[in-house]
Amino acid sequence: MKKRIVLLPGDGIGKEVIHSAKDVLQAIAEEYNHSFCFETHEIGGAAIDLYGTPLPETTVDACKQADAVLLGAVGGPKWDNNPSHLRPEKGLLGIRKALDLFANLRPIKGFKNLLHASPLKEEVVSGSDLLIVRELTGGLYFGTPSERRDNGNTVVDTLSYTRKEIERIVDKGFQAAQQRRGHLTSVDKANVLESSKLWREVVEEKKAQYPDVAVEHVLVDAAAMKLITNPTHFDVIVTENLFGDILSDEASVLTGSLGMLPSASLREDGLGLYEPVHGSAPDIAGKGVANPVAMILSAALMLRYSFQLEDEAKVIEDAVQSILDTGFHTGDLQVANGRLVGTAEMTKLIVDYI
Amino acid sequence: MKKRIVLLPGDGIGKEVIHSAKDVLQAIAEEYNHSFCFETHEIGGAAIDLYGTPLPETTVDACKQADAVLLGAVGGPKWDNNPSHLRPEKGLLGIRKALDLFANLRPIKGFKNLLHASPLKEEVVSGSDLLIVRELTGGLYFGTPSERRDNGNTVVDTLSYTRKEIERIVDKGFQAAQQRRGHLTSVDKANVLESSKLWREVVEEKKAQYPDVAVEHVLVDAAAMKLITNPTHFDVIVTENLFGDILSDEASVLTGSLGMLPSASLREDGLGLYEPVHGSAPDIAGKGVANPVAMILSAALMLRYSFQLEDEAKVIEDAVQSILDTGFHTGDLQVANGRLVGTAEMTKLIVDYI
Ligand SMILES: CC(C)[C@H](C(=O)O)[C@@H](O)C(=O)O
Ligand SMILES: CC(C)[C@H](C(=O)O)[C@@H](O)C(=O)O
């Protein structure tokens, strides 16, 4: 298989962990006889420094022509006080919209050896394994008007969805549930929002197409509670953009594995952008100590979702599990009787396993 | 002191626990020589059944003439499939707006004997004591337009705030922090929403008026994480309506004391509506087993915030703590070597202590 992959290192530790993903993918290419060609472009703070914009057109064009995109992380204190169009995260929002990456998938599964790092009691969190399917290109993030009025004395943002936008993400949720344990939780605020009422209607209509999936509706406030009191209740959660932002961050700290969590943002045709859930960690950037696992697991998701290379994805995931089982870990994790390694050594261990 | 109190039992266990609050307030009145006069009105499902609307005008009028309002809870399966204008929660939203109860205060503090019921590890949650100040009459809940368009193919909701609405709730947040540990966390999504940018500006402007308060800005997704990983970090959180809805429900399950948590919804002049955080619990309604403590503690908040009767409020809180320390508890709680009691007996214990 021949594929073009765009690398967007971004800022902070993004620049380090992206190399790890590349090394691992090259190992996969050799082992399985694929040809991956890589092209690197700027986004976020790095792009602001070089080109005066968080999302240069060359970056967008390259991504549009690619088969998949890997992104490290964006942001850092250097750009925190910039005006909003010169903020690194505008690059992220921009590329999602430009590529129509409407489906954000965040699988959250704890690693047994890390469960002790969870703030939750082991008996509460043990066995939890859920997938959050978040709508990523609509809702309050992109609705207009979004502006000040009356000399700045009033401000409005707009939560808007078309029925089509809701349908395609709800379909993703159902399909994901079919491939997992057949349980879908649709999260909305239908007791208050008109948009949530339409959302709930669409879910109800789609039910018939997926008779093998059991669906429930949960209000967003109740979902925020239940994620903590009963995380094992959930299989797939599907929800709109802002609710998904809040709930997926909440869920990501439950298992103690935040530094290990990958994510995928997909377009209808399979083009995807893959990035770790963690941020650019400016405090440890440049020191060679960052945990590359979330980035490497994001590359595995790329193989699975964009290239349908399930076996190759599985090998990477097995490699990570096995290295962790052997006790190797980076400085962000605590593993009993473990062996502390840096970014490069961790990457080499995974490459060697492959 | 002479005060008129409107009781809105609502539905389910609301009807039972409201009696407990009344009994406790009557004991306080006798002991401290006050005169409280009570008037009962309908809201929610009960009002739908009797008057065909979840918020009859007689109820609104009575509340407007009262010095304070106590509300039990609204909702139940009987009305779950009603059209949205005939849903019990419309009564709740309506009374908040009609009385201009813009400031919702939810103190969340664990009881030591109940901490074992928390899903969090004791070392994570122990010592946490926070207050969420939620804006209650603006934002996505009440913004217009909120409607379907294009034959139902598009839907919009509007998140709107005036600068004044933001200022008055931010003031409440600062003032609450002054009376507590002097730390205020303002939660927004300023990297995406225009409304959050104005919110953040207002907080920055107000800083100078409250030099004794340390302020930080936290994004709502990060706040949802930090509430779990580090709940003791927080003192006062101030935020807009929907973020407050989600975060306060999330926070309410951290300490294992959900059935014990009161809330206050205040107007600028001190008029307030007080209600337990828990719902109407239709599964145990009518059995005399409901935990009346959240309702009774809500009555204590009424004495404190609407009537400035701090001593009287404190006595109720001490009574609850002491009864709990003695081992008495209702069926929703598990207390080691405890003595199980029903609603009436629990109420009598608290009344006798007073
Ligand atoms: C950086 C920010 C705009 C972004 C979002 O809110 O979508 C981030 O929190 C995320 O979840 O990827
Ligand atoms: C019932 C519902 C409309 C209400 C809200 O969202 O405000 C409830 O969740 C609350 O927090 O009091």
UniProtKB/TrEMBL annotation, chains A, B:
Residues given in the record as Mg(2+) binding sites: D221, D245, D249
Site residues by UniProt (Important for catalysis): Y141, K189
Record domain Isopropylmalate dehydrogenase-like: where: 4-350
UniProt cofactor(s): Mn(2+); Mg(2+)
Gene this protein is translated from: leuB
UniProt-listed Enzyme Commission number(s): 1.1.1.85
Protein name: 3-isopropylmalate dehydrogenase
Subcellular location: Cytoplasm
Co-factor: note: Binds 1 Mg(2+) or Mn(2+) ion per subunit.
InterPro entries in alphabetical order: IsoCit/isopropylmalate_DH_CS, IsoPropMal-DH-like_dom, Isopropylmalate_DH
Residues the entry annotates as binding substrate: R96, R106, R134, D221
Location (main, coarse): cytoplasm
Family: Belongs to the isocitrate and isopropylmalate dehydrogenases family. LeuB type 1 subfamily.
Cellular component annotations (GO), alphabetically ordered: cytosol
Protein's GO biological process: L-leucine biosynthetic process
Pathway, per record: Amino-acid biosynthesis; L-leucine biosynthesis; L-leucine from 3-methyl-2-oxobutanoate: step 3/4
Gene3D superfamilies in the record: Isopropylmalate Dehydrogenase
